Amino acid sequence: MNELLSALALVLIIEGLMPLISPARWREVFSRILAMSDGQIRFIGLASMLLGLLGWFWLR
């Protein structure tokens, strides 16, 4: 459980970097995401999950 909470904390830290460093660019990225279709967003989500899973297996 401790590892899961540590991983969640790390995700929150990484997710917070872009709005902290470049809020204008962060807004631009979100406006592009809003213009995407559901299929494109699902593909990006799937690709992110697969990359994360591969990275997790590689680190283990």
Quaternary status = single chain
Q: What fraction of residues sit in β-strands?
A: under 5%
Q: Can you tell me the number of structural domains?
A: 1
User: Looking at the structure, what is the overall shape?
Assistant: flat
By DSSP, the count of extended strands is 0
Helix content class: over 70%
**First-to-last CA distance:** 17 Å
**SSE succession:** HHH
How many alpha or pi helices? 3
Structural class: mainly alpha
> What is the makeup of the main sheet?
none
Q: Which parts are unreliable, with pLDDT below 50 for 5 consecutive residues or more? A: none
Structural Rg: 14 Å
Average pLDDT works out at 93
Structure description:
- With 60 residues, this protein is mainly α.
- It has one domain.
- Helix content is 92%, strand content 0%.
- The protein is flat, with a radius of gyration of 14 Å.
- The model has no long low-confidence stretch (mean pLDDT 93).
Write the layout of secondary structure elements.
Blueprint lengths: L1 H20 L1 H13 L2 H22 L1
Task: Give a quick summary of the entry.
The chain is mainly α and 60 residues long. The chain contains 3 helices and no strands.
Task: List descriptors.
mainly alpha, 3 helices, single chain, 92% helix
